[in-house]
Specification:
2 domains; six-stranded mixed sheet; alpha/beta; Rossmann fold; five-stranded parallel sheet
Length: about 375
């Protein structure tokens, strides 16, 4: 029997690799001779770097960058290993420009910048990477990727030919975009963006209106940022010949989606699809007998681009059964059965506090997997 183990992380508790290891323990108690293929997964958000590094035998790299407020911090990204070609870096923008990096009382998208994300990209170039995978969830910014572009050599100029200030508010002064000093190595780079939202840059569903308030924007800031980004998009179209204003996903991460498309020629793609491709999951599934997946919580929202469904749909290409394990199973989780998951199992064995469940998570996951495979073994005997 060949079993593919492909869970996401159990957020705030187990990494995808740790979850994979616990699942393997449970299986081996019943089927010690089973062939196990562990492929840690993620959906483009938090944990994507670690999952892809673990799945490919890659490495974590650190770089000194600016946080959203301009303070110097150390941020990590990954370089994929194995037979991955071309040499690929995977970056989570939130490690440099994420909301958790900004104290609640200092959250202000008029001044927060994606400059640090650009510095991470530059570090990847310095490490001779020829492809980038960029996860753009969890941003503290609404600058349209302007800061990222500045870090890579783009000149965003005001009416006097001077650099505009960083942050979404700085776009008020933008008059011209000069890419003559844009890092030349970017012309050889393939950039794929993990993006699971289809919001345009501006308007009622745009970056300021939908995501601005959670980043500290007042109603007045939302109005101003929408005006600034609208004009920013017009100048991008005029000076670069790229129309990003209405492109689905351009509004992701405060408009970083638009900036990556405009300055790096990036293509936006579902996060789970990117991870499935980069991790080689489908190659492992092709000759497997059963697939195991899971994450911390599974409910009706799981069917919208989350890891368990992405894994299940891949498994169904080959007619394979799929079991998913979760710490929390929502009352509306039955919808996953119509989306490729055949059985859904809770790892909780008795009433317990969240603190206890998290402390014992590896043990609970291994034990629940053992129970499931005892049933499978019973079915085989019948």
């Amino acid at each position: 029997m060949k079993i593919v183990i492909a869970p996401d992380s159990f957020k705030g508790n187990l990494t995808a690799k740790e979850a994979s290891d616990a699942i393997e323990i449970g299986i081996k108690r019943i089927f010690p001779d089973a062939i196990i293929a562990k492929v840690p997964m993620a959906d483009g958000g938090e944990g994507t770097v670690q999952a892809l590094v673990d799945a490919t035998g890659g490495e974590i790299v650190s770089a000194e960058v600016c946080d959203p407020l301009g303070n110097r911090i150390i941020a990590d990204y990954g370089i994929l290993g194995g037979l991955t070609t071309p040499k690929t870096a995977v970056i989570e923008m939130a490690t440099a420009s994420g909301l958790p990096l900004v104290p609640r009382d200092k959250r202000n998208p008029m001044i927060t910048t994606t400059y640090g994300t650009g510095e991470l990209i530059k570090s990847a170039l310095d490490n001779d990477c020829k492809a980038l995978i960029v996860g753009i969830g969890g941003s503290a910014t609404t600058d349209g990727g302007a800061g990222m572009a500045q870090a890579l050599g783009v000149k965003l100029l005001d009416k006097d030919g001077k650099d505009i200030p960083r942050g979404g508010g700085g776009l008020k002064y933008l008059e011209k975009i000069d890419i003559s000093d844009l890092d030349k190595r970017l012309s050889e780079i393939i950039t794929t963006v993990a993006c699971d939202v289809d919001n345009p840059l501006v308007g009622p569903r745009g970056a300021p209106a939908v995501f601005g308030p959670q980043k500290g924007a007042t109603p007045e800031m939302v109005k101003l940022l929408d005006e600034y980004l609208d004009r920013y998009a017009d100048i991008i179209k005029r000076d670069l010949g790229v129309d990003v204003k209405e492109t689905p996903g351009a509004g992701a991460a405060g408009g970083l989606g638009a900036g990556l498309m405009a300055f790096l020629g990036a293509k936006l793609k579902s996060g789970i699809d990117i991870v499935i491709e980069a991790s080689g999951l489908e190659q492992e599934i092709k000759n497997a007998d059963i697939v195991i997946t899971g994450e911390g919580k599974i409910d009706s929202q799981t069917i919208y681009g989350k890891t368990p469904i992405g894994v299940a749909k891949t498994a169904k290409k080959y007619g394979l059964p799929v079991i998913a394990f979760a710490g929390n199973i929502g009352s509306d989780s039955h919808v996953v059965y119509d989306n490729g998951i055949d059985a859904l199992m809770s790892i909780i064995s008795y009433p317990m506090t969240l603190e206890i469940a998290m402390k014992r998570s590896k043990e609970l996951l291994a034990d629940s997997v053992e129970r499931a495979f005892r049933l499978i073994n019973l079915g085989i005997k019948l």
